[in-house]
Every structure is written in C-alpha cells, then in structure tokens.
Amino acid sequence: MQAKDSAPSETWSERIRAFASGPKPIGFFLFLLIAVTIIPAIGVSVVLLQRNNEAQREVVTTLAEAMAGSIAEAVDRELSGMSTTLRVLSTTPSLASGDLKDFYDRARLALAGSGSYLRVLDENYRLLINTGVPFGEPLTPLNEPETARAALKGGVTITSGVFFGKLDGKWSFKVVKPYFPENGPPRILVMTRNADTLVDVLSQQMLRGGWNASVVDKNNIVVASSFMSSDVGKTFFLNLDGTGIQHEAEPAEGREGGTYTAIIGESGVSGWKAVVWASTKTIEEPMRHSLRMLLAGGLLVIAIGAFAAWLLGRQIAGPVRRLARDARRLGAGEPVHAIEYPIAEVATVSSALAEAALDREQAENEIRLLMREVAHRSKNQLTVVSSMAKQTARSSRTFAGFQDAFQKRLHGLARSTDLLIAGGAAGVELRELLAAQVDPFRPDSAERLKMTGPKFRLANQPAQTVGLAVHELATNASKYGAFSTSTGRLEISWKVKDDILTLTWREHVSKGRRRNVRRRGFGTEIIERMVGGTLDAEISRVFHRDGLECVFRIPVDRLVPDSLKNPSPTGEVD
C-alpha cells in the first residue's frame, strides 16, 4: 500500500519541479503581471488607509480634547454661577440682622426653578434654615459636614464631591461659602444641587462614533455621565492618571473590558474632571472594516485577474503555436503566408514571417545571379589581368620594367574594389568610382581617356550597381573596344538636369575593330537587369561606325544617399 501511495506523490513532485525549471505558459506571466500590478496597489492602499486612519484619529482626538475642555468649562460656569448666587445672597441685609424668615423667603424666591436649595449653618454647623423644607419645620443634620468645616476654616468657597441626598433621595453636590458678618458669629451658606442637572451640560456635546462623556469629582466618583445614569455615585471605571490624552487606558480592578482612549479636562473651580472616552476596539473598528473590505476586494480582483489571464492566455497561445509552425516552415524553405490574427503584435510577426519567406526566395534568386556574376567577374578579372600583362609587355623594354608596371596595375585593380568599401554611409563620388573601374584597363597614354562632369555622390548600393555596369563596359572595351587597340579612345561624360543623371559612355575605335552587335553576352544582361531594373534607368546602346555609345538616364532620387537632398552639383571638367 505504501508503494502505491508514494507513486502519485513522486509524479506530482516531478511535475512541480518540471514546471518550476521549465518554460512557463503565457497565462502564468499574465497572472504575474496582474499580481505585481494589484498587490503593490493593495499594499499602498493599506499604508494610505492606515495613515488616513491615524490622521482621522488625531482629528477625532483633537475634537474630543476640545470637547473635554468644553465640558470642563461648562461645569466651571455652573459652579461659578452657584458661587455667585451665594455671594449675592450673602449680601442680603436680613442675613446680617438675623432675620432668618426674611432671608428664607428671599433665598427661596431666588432659587425657584434652579433645581437647587439653600441651607444656612451657624458656627457650630447646626442648620438654621433649609429652603428645601417649609420654614419652621424640624431640620435634619447636615450630610457630609467636612466640606463646611473646611470652608469655614479656610474662609474660601469650596465645592464638595457627589453625595446621596437624604432629603430628596437623589445624588447631589454642594457649594459651600463662609459668611463673616461685622457683628455677630459667622454663618455658612450651603447651596445643594442635584447631580442630574449636569446631564444637560453633557447632552449639549456632539458625542458620536462610540464616544461618551462623564464628570467625576476629586475622589474619582461619577457626578454625571452620558453613558449610563446608574454610574452616578460610583467610582469611575477607568484608572485616570492626571489630565490630557491617555491612550490604552485600562479599567479599574474588578471591571471588565478592553483598553480605552480617554481625554481628560480638569475644572479649575472644583478640581473635578471632564472625561471623554471611547473603547479602543470601537475606535479601530472602522479601520478593521476598511482593511477587511480592501483585502476582500483585492482577492476578488486577483481571482478575476487570474481568470482573465487564463482566458487571454488561451487566446494568445493558439496564434503563437501557429507562428511557431510558420517559423518551422520558413526554416525548411517552404512558402509562408500572412494570417490576420486578432492580436496586432502576432499579426505583425506573421506578416514579418511572410515577408521573410518572400525575401528569402528573392535572396536565393539573387544569390544564384550573384554566383553567375562571380564566375563571370572571375573570368573578366583574368581577362583584365591578361590584357594588363599584354599591354604592359608591349610598352616595356625590360623584364624589370614590365614587372614594375604590371605590379602597379594589379594594385590599381585592387583599389577599385576597395573604393566601394571605403565610401561607407557617405557614399562614393561618381568620378572616383569611374576612375577606379576604368583605371585597371586604361592605356598609359592619358589622351586616350577623358572624363567630364560635375561632382556627384552616389549611395553605396547604387554605386555598386553603377560600378558593376562600368566594369562590364570597361572589360568589353579592353576586349573589343577602345582599349583593345593602340589607337582607341574613351570619353565618359555625365550631367544632371531635371533630376535625371545622364551618363554617356562613348568609345572611338578604328573601323576594323567594330564589335559584333548581334552578340548578347552575360555582361549586357547584367547591365540591363541591374541598372535598368534596380535603378529605373533608361539605357540606350548605339554602335556607331567608329565605336559604341551607351547612354544611361537614371533618376537622381535613386542614386543619392539619404543624407543628401536636392544636390547642387557644380561643374568640374577634366
């Protein structure tokens, strides 16, 4: 059983290794292209999203900090208002004169509808009046007398913490102000107010997105809260340390929950704290949600891209296989025809293969022609060398003279071949080309050769064609024409008119050396096919009684190099 189970695993491992080391299908590279395009974009999006979230958190934190400060200022205004009311009531004459009934009536009228009530204590902290009950009824002792003692002892107005009022059964706080009349014992004015009146201060703030606000006293007891009213009178659930922004604030011992972000503003009047807080999880939830949506969208896009890559790969693989088949046919020398493919690049390659097949066929034809030309030129070169040897021998008196002259003429023949190579992209001067082709055949007498015409530069390919034709003419002249006798002459002239180069080859020979005009050799075929067919030249050949006249009329635009336009030839006559 183990052997049977291991065989498939080995097969799959071999397939994986073959896929990793061998060529990959085009769909694989298309998928990679999509992946390398999308994955960095997702990464950049994550970074930008994170930075945007951080910027938003900074903005929200700043707003929450301003909100905490605003709540602290509102609490200060409420407590300052209570202190101001106590200060105004302390100036009432009936309080100084001891007319408690009159003072009771004035204080009750002043505090009507404010949710506050006033109590007056003597120097022994006994209640004298309480606007919360009818005047004259028995009064209960004061809750939390420590604040009254501290205010009387310090002679300053003090705000207490939150406490549970026995009179109305609600959580309350009080502001205590000592009063020292000019005559008589001191009095203590205590204004008590329900804590739930501060909820209106919190409700005026725009608390959204999981943010809450609480007011806590100096003992960290909740005075008012926008979260749960049942928290009033209880210890605030977060461990607060000073003021400002506290990130990752943890709940107090025994309280459950994660970390929180708390912004704390302190009241300058009472020492209370305005706390704006929110769960870290709640704050980060939009970021997590955005990341989940981004990753889900990215995976969806990658899946769609993989499917599209598979489809596109199939569309491309078929034409590529057909191109490979055409390439093999091209290598085998078979004809290849262009096919219209839906992919422009593949269609271009198909057209290129078809053109290459046509060029190959033409090149093969040209090679056959050139092979014939090589054989013909070799024979002509041997004829040239033989003619040079004969002419040199006739004009040389000694063997040493013959050897020197013959060697010079061989060097001239070699230079005529090198001239076409030396011209390079700049082309070849027509005069130099003519001289290089004719010089190996010309006799010693300068009067027997005359060249006249303006400066004119040929491109390399036309120069080779023209040089080939002149070489044929010069070879024939050495065999049958002007250079075959001791008295023959050759005149070469050219001119440019109406964008046509007219090149005239005129031989002058004795009547006894007239050429057989009916004979048509390979050289004549080369001239007509190469010059006439390649350069669109008009060629006329006339055999006069005293020699051959051959005229070439060639369009200038088929001759000049690409770097030269509208040449302005100047006359230069030898």
From TrEMBL:
Superkingdom in the source lineage: Bacteria
Gene3D superfamilies with a match to the protein in the record: 6.10.340.10, Histidine kinase-like ATPase, C-terminal domain, PAS domain
Coiled-coil ranges per the record?
346-380
Q: Start and end of every Signal transduction histidine kinase HWE region domain?
A: 373-455
User: Top enzyme class of this protein?
Assistant: transferase
Q: Which residues cross the membrane?
A: 26-49, 293-313
Stated EC number for the protein is 2.7.13.3
Reactions catalysed, semicolon-separated, are:
ATP + protein L-histidine = ADP + protein N-phospho-L-histidine
Q: Which PANTHER family match?
A: HISTIDINE KINASE (PTHR41523:SF7), TWO-COMPONENT SYSTEM SENSOR PROTEIN (PTHR41523)
Q: What is this protein called?
A: histidine kinase
